[in-house]
Amino acid sequence: MSLILEPAVTFINEQLEGKSIDKIDRKIKDLTDIFYDKQAHAAMPADTIVYEVESYFPVKQGTEGGLFYGITYIHPGTVGDEYFMTKGHFHKIRNRAEFYCTLQGEGMLLLMDEEGKTWAEKMYPGSVHYIPGHIAHRTANTGDIILSFSAFWPSDAGHDYATISEHGFSKILVKQNGKPVLMDNDK
Ligand code: PAN
Ligand code: ZN
Predict the structure, then answer these.
(1) Is the pTM of this model over 0.85?
(2) Residue 35 falls inside a structural domain
(3) Alpha carbon separation from 141 to 71, 106, 107, 187 (Å, rounded)
(4) Tens digits of per-residue pLDDT, 154-176?
């Protein structure tokens, strides 16, 4: 066996580097469906970055039996009184699960089952979250610095964004008196 001294991918200075790393960002203009306050959304600079994702895809998307690794960085901020958050999704293959591990900052992991019941788990450095299959997931930054977390999911899971962009989660996370509160989504 040869001795491998350089890993294919490193995570140094809060950055994933190496082969097969994919980097994306989601700006205000890419997130037209998710925030409830459409007026506040329209008034914000379109190029404001809400979150970034760096992912390591060691195998092809859709490969059964493989794993993907990604780090999400959600910037601090709100649209109206709703915290900056990810689009959120079910996995396309519904029974595929996922782990999230918080690296820095504070936030909430919103979870929703297929009957539309929503709940949330607090995220803080060191918190580990198991997201079972059949559960939609979205993260929101409730702090003043970047919220970052690593994620591990099956390479055939896929992402179903359409269901969430059409119906949303049944609850929204808003800032009230400086604190996160989960409220019913009137839509
Ligand atoms: C994560 C998410 C990431 C961004 O890696 O993809 O946090 O959120 P959206 O995909 O909802 O925009 C994950 O859950 N992968 O399956
Ligand atoms: Zn996922």
Answers:
(1) yes
(2) yes
(3) 14, 6, 4, 22
(4) 999 999 999 999 999 999 999 99
